[in-house]
Design brief:
The protein folds into 2 domains: about 120 residues, Rossmann fold, CATH 3.40.50.720; about 180 residues, Dihydrodipicolinate Reductase, domain 2 (2-Layer Sandwich), CATH 3.30.360.10. The protein is built from 9 helices and 16 strands. The strands form 2 sheets. Strands 7, 8, 9, 10, 11, 12, 13, 14, 15 and 16 form a 10-stranded mixed β-sheet that branches. About 50% of the residues are buried. The mean pLDDT is about 95. GO terms for molecular function: nucleotide binding; oxidoreductase activity.
Length: about 325
Amino acid sequence: MTKKLRWGIMGCAGIAKRAVIPGIQQSAYNEVAAIASRDESNAKQTAEALDIPDAYGSYEALLADSSIDAVYIPLPNHLHKEWTIKAAEAGKHILCEKPLALTAQEAAEMANAAEQAGVLLAEAFMYRYHPRYSVIQDLIASGAIGEVRGIRSAFTFNNAADSANVRYRKDWGGGSIYDVGCYPINAARLLLGREPEAVTVNAMFSPTHDDVDMMASGLIEFGDSVALTFDCGMWAAFRNPLEVLGSEGIIEVPSAFITPTAESGSIFVTAAGERREIEVPFVNAYSEQADHMARAIIEGTPLAFPAADAIANMKVIDACLQSARNRTRVSLSQ
């Protein structure tokens, strides 16, 4: 594939500058052609710092650029729906930060807009493009750990002192379930290959953080007596492990959702009384994500994770938030 996908970045968020833009720039089939911000000086400074050719002082101007093939949207959660729909109407393919929307209904509306416009829409869960997740899926399928009995995962960090952070705006889609709880939920759905039946979540809502969930722990029931137990938080020590428990063994991923560039992101498998390490060479998952989308757009190959997957994930998040607020078990069939 000789053609490169030309990307426009809608916003100068930290995740865009720190990880996604460099990942796109280091990929094989993509280039970052432009960036936009409501503050034109911010867009120009970011463009200069990251060697991006064009900068715009509005998102509308970026969408009007006919040379842009696709846009990446790292805006606050409550803006995802508005700008995804506008991008679709402008004929741009869309990679939107997780969570895709504030509700499954919003996600469905976004997916419908993309379908009507004939563009692709994907949710930016970069971790799942790392090849180690294919290794984990193969280990499970091969019976290396016997029958899956459950999954345990967590994603926590402590940023509570930054009271002005967008994560602590309830009306902007703040809270730990939206921000990091979505990862264990998404990973369990990916590894088990099916949708959950019910959820029960307990959360700590903080009045000093606009009453968003600063911590949450939950049980996600997948049927056949298999469940995900997880916790997430923005007011606790950092960690992001994942463990798949089988009848005959265990798969451990110490850093499940963040793979540091200086480490391999190894997987550990315990079976028959022996613990072995499976080394996975470092791969930039952001680059893999961009290249996967480029192949889908340019060559017409199917997306591994189409918008329907994002809608399904949002249904679980909806149920988790409902359970946490009402302190009750929520069936996904409701």
